[in-house]
Design a protein that fits this description.
This protein is mainly alpha-helical. 58% of the residues lie in helices and 7% in strands.
Length: 274
């Protein structure tokens, strides 16, 4: 596999059992491919320092809500971390180094900072892939509480999550159990990359969107819809050999897909122009 140096670092990190993946390292390697001028160790050390400072502030009696309150006070009051409501779709909000540097980001990257601090003080937390708004929670059964890292560590209960969904979608949405299920580390990274893919598509930066899709497919090689999307982007950029490979693979796997005829037309148009 002919990966760039930075993509090889990402691949090496994710090419192991999920529980052994270091999320912070993988996220920094993800960012390196777009911004190759920083040292990941500098930001891993910054997370270590933050965790040490939180540990010094913890009360003697450790209850989950007290630990969350301590992290919240430190991150949002002392350091000034905040959700980026001004420029939500800035790609830098998806790069962990920039989030640590600028102290602002989107729900999933602020959740990552929070998770990394919590895990370093032996208070393991996990990501919750709620549609439209990423959350985290303590990693023990029946925790019953969720933390919104984008909104100053606000503590939510299931009913709050239901109301948050209704606000996001502008209508009543029934809270399904899977909406509050914890995500694996690979799913976490795929969601970060899916955000980047969408941002770069909206900015008409096709090659950067392809780079995001490439790494989604490293995480989940069977994500055939991602191959279709990459094939369409290759087609738009006139990389027809690559486009043909992805689009033909899509049709082999999903010959009855709703858009199969459109994909066949794209393939036919490339054949006519050879």
């Amino acid at each position: 596999m002919n990966y760039s140096q930075y993509r090889q670092l990402f691949y090496s990190e994710i090419n192991q059992p999920d529980e052994k993946i270091d999320l912070a390292k993988a996220a920094l390697y993800l960012a390196l491919e777009y911004e190759p001028e920083f040292d990941p160790d500098e930001y891993l050390n910054a997370l270590d320092t933050m965790a040490d400072e939180v540990r010094e502030k913890l009360p003697e009696t450790l209850y989950p809500l007290q630990i969350i309150k301590t992290i919240n006070n430190y991150l949002y009051d002392d350091l000034g971390f905040a959700g980026n409501t001004i420029d939500y779709y800035d790609p830098q909000n998806s790069f962990l180094n920039q989030v640590i540097e600028r102290r602002t980001g989107i729900p999933i990257t602020l959740s990552l900072v929070y998770l990394e601090i919590a895990n370093r003080i032996n208070f393991p937390m996990v990501g919750i892939g709620m549609p439209g708004h990423f959350l985290i929670r303590p990693d023990f059964e029946e925790a019953g509480i969720y933390v919104d890292a984008f909104n100053r560590g606000e503590i939510l209960f299931p009913q709050d999550c239901q109301e948050r969904l209704a606000t996001i979608y502008g209508r009543g949405v029934e809270l399904q159990p899977q909406f509050l299920a914890k995500v694996s580390k690979k799913q976490f990274l795929a969601r970060m990359l899916t955000n980047l893919k969408g941002i770069y598509l909206n900015r008409n930066e096709g090659l950067k969107a392809i780079a995001a899709i490439d790494r989604i497919l490293l995480l989940f090689p069977d994500a055939i819809v991602e191959k279709r999307d990459r094939g369409v982007l290759y087609y738009q950029l006139n990389f027809w050999a690559e486009a043909r490979q992805d689009l033909e693979s899509y049709l082999v796997n999903l010959p009855q897909a709703e858009d199969a005829e459109i994909i066949r037309q794209l393939l036919a148009s490339m054949s006519q122009d050879l």
